[in-house]
Here is the input.
Amino acid sequence: MKRALIIASREYLSFLRTPGFWVSLLVMPVVALLTSLGPQMIARSEPPPTLMVVDVTGLGAGGPGAWLVSSLAGPAGREPAAQFDQAAMRVRAPTPTRAAAVLAPVPDRVAKARSPSEAAVALRPYMSGELKLPNGRALSAAAVISGTADHLKVDLWTPTPTVGGLGGLVSEHLNVWLRRARLTQAGVDPGLSDRLNANLTDVQGYSPKASVAGKVSFRDQLPALAAVGLSFLLWTLVMTGAGILLNTVIEEKSNRVIEVLLSSASVTEILAGKIAGGAALSLTMMAFWGGIGAWLVGRSSPDLLPQILSALLGNGLIFWFIAFFLAGYLMYASVFAAVGSFCETPREAQTLLGPIMVLLTVPIVFMGASITHPDAPALKLLVWVPFFTPFLMTIRVAAGAPLPELIGGLVMLVTTMVVVVLFAGRAFRSGALATEKLDARRFLLVLIGRRS
Amino acid sequence: MAEPALQLDGVSKRYGDNLAVRDLSFEAPRGKIFGFLGPNGAGKTSTLRMVLGLVAPSAGRINVLGADDGRKVRNRIGFLPEERGLYRRMTPSQAFGFFGALKGLNAAEAQRRGRRMMEEQGLGQAVNRPMKALSKGMAQKVALISALVHEPELVVLDEPFSGLDPVNQQGLEQLIRALADRGATVVFSTHVMAHAERLCDKVVLMARGAKVFDGPVAAARATAPQRLVLEGALNPDEVAALPGVVRVSSEAIPDGVRCLADLATGATANTALREAFLKGMAISRFEAREPNLHDAFILLTEQAGALSAETHA
Here is the structure.
């Protein structure tokens, strides 16, 4: 036991002293931040697109073109243009900081067009970049409106086919005009359309599991979100910790330190020490990331912090998480250590780790979908596969899975973990002393005890 | 008589279909330097691993410092693997603390002893440098000191001279002698006979997994024939006919031919040389060459190969 602690302490301290550890510690929050803010940052890094509205319907000042221009510009052009949220199929409230599009003045040569084809010809130099707008900017898109009051047609011209978003915006505003025009034709007050749109259905979710009067609120959804977050965290920690372990074993194997260790301690002590050291590193990372997360949440939404804590403690989520983390980490770390003992370079390890990595991507696929489908039969089935249990069972805890399911899953995971650790220990000893080139067949024979 | 530090009795080791060590028996006396010799693939490393308890023998018994398993006495054994066996980012001081603690020593005491030994070797200035900044010779000495800080009774060194320059080889030889003077038993494997010849009290020669010789260095040398070197305008067939000569190999040299004549056991070079002069052979140079361990090693290895080939035939 004492030797295991000495080895664990060395593992922990040696990695703590490397710049790589601190880089990976800091990279994770940065990556998380970039992932969540990246799309917005990309969108905000360029100016709003310039949109030209060309109306060839001949419907004049009351036509769709004028409506579109006025509704995009706001009354007298004072308000910024509304943003169209295509995913939610609704117009968002205008934000004071950024417009969805800037209306471009229509040059004379384009304004003279009387058909979509004439407009297309007139627009071509602006699309190709030969001509700039009178204000010196490049044109991002042009909406050429044609057709009749009964059936409008819009040709949306853009220099690059991949530019999106503006079509929805144009369509939303013109649909309002169409509704108003048809209501007017039918002798109905066109303002009715606006009033109808203003009083849309308000859906309120209720559940017997909801905390306040059965009303479903964000607080009730928090445990599921926290569980998925914890599952991702567990996955990251297992991958990081086991990866660190793999690298140290490869280093020890390549410089023969492993032989000195084996002459000084038992395989059990070495493996236990290494796994404990890696786990301590993972827990340090978890504490660091958790601390940063708590600090950020505390700064931005202080009310949310107690709710998150309550979600973590509710149903014993955090305790189940720790139990599944320990068992899962032990299982994967021992496999990674065994693989590392057969390899002298990371490249050699890739050969054996390929199938394990493929296996580890399966729970990732299911984690995202499990937020909305925590009781899906596929998920209920997968939690019984011990290699996926650590990552998916936490989600089932948050969904209020019955205790027999949780205990059964844990028992199965621990049993598998014990078997895997025993096999991995055997493989580790054999691999550590092997001088032959890496051979997957030999690795399997060692695992099943057909070779020493 | 004191119990030997190491005793192997009919030990074999099989890896799948490969019999790496065959029915090996020998004893390494306490406080002596014991050479474990053989070509690559002879079974030296497998034997040392069995001695250390890293792998179990397939057959036979091993007694290490009175125990039937090296793992039971691991704190009394020091081991240096064939390559450095050091963490690249560790400093020597950290290595002494870590490996010493694994052998049951207080880490601070292990560091203190290690530093003292480093200073004795003139390496005091390198004690806090990372291992990757040390030369191969320095790193090898650090690795050896790491294996010695707990003052083991049995020191097992696997190819300790591998890759060292002559100056560092000499330094390592001095360290090994100092260990034996302190009373430790040193067992080292090598395929470079010169080190064994200079250092060892006793050697075991292995070839193809089996022991081909076990005894003092002088006795090993005596297994090889004395040789007579003759140069001049010579006919190798006439040299082969000289009394006591059992085999002749020859090569052309600028002044004629150089003949290397192996003499039979008990035959002397003087007898053959006198007969050569009596026969009027045109000898420009002659030399009676005493066999060394290298000659014995080559001969015994070849004999083992021939025997093995016959057995397989």
About this structure: The beta strands of chain A are 50-55, 83-85, 90-92, 102-103, 141-147, 152-157. The longest helix of chain A spans residues 218-254.
